[in-house]
Automatic annotation (TrEMBL):
Subcellular location(s) of the protein: Mitochondrion inner membrane
Organism placement in taxonomy: Eukaryota, Metazoa, Chordata, Craniata, Vertebrata
PANTHER family in UniProt: CYTOCHROME B-C1 COMPLEX SUBUNIT 8 (PTHR12119:SF2), UBIQUINOL-CYTOCHROME C REDUCTASE COMPLEX UBIQUINONE-BINDING PROTEIN QP-C (PTHR12119)
Native source organism of the sequence: Pipistrellus nathusii
Protein name (Swiss-Prot/TrEMBL): Cytochrome b-c1 complex subunit 8
Similarity field: Belongs to the UQCRQ/QCR8 family.
Principal place of residence: mitochondrion
Keywords, sorted A to Z: Electron transport, Membrane, Mitochondrion, Mitochondrion inner membrane, Respiratory chain, Transmembrane, Transmembrane helix, Transport
SUPFAM superfamilies named in the record: Ubiquinone-binding protein QP-C of cytochrome bc1 complex (Ubiquinol-cytochrome c reductase) (SSF81508)
Length: 82
């Protein structure tokens, strides 16, 4: 009933290699190379990433405080009301 999927056409002059999943190591050198690499990359980019977040956080908290202040009524305005 036709060719199987993955072998629909014949490609000439292309060499493909594959390795059995049973012969691969899923996490080679994960702790010895991976963790230090992550720490190095974080250290290299922290000065570019953190300042905008801190700035936006300070602006957001200031704006929220100002908004809450503007919602409150001034009690001195209503002292003489009965």
């Amino acid at each position: 009933m036709g060719r199987a999927f993955g072998k629909l056409t014949r490609v000439r002059h292309v060499i493909t290699y594959s390795l059995s999943p049973f012969e691969q190591r899923a996490f080679p050198h994960f702790f010895s190379h991976g963790v230090p690499n992550v720490l190095r990359r974080i250290q290299a980019s922290i000065l570019r990433v953190v300042p905008p977040f801190v700035g936006f956080y300070l602006i957001y908290t200031w704006g929220t405080e100002e908004f809450e202040k503007s919602r409150k009524k001034n009690p001195a305005t209503y002292e003489n009301d009965h």
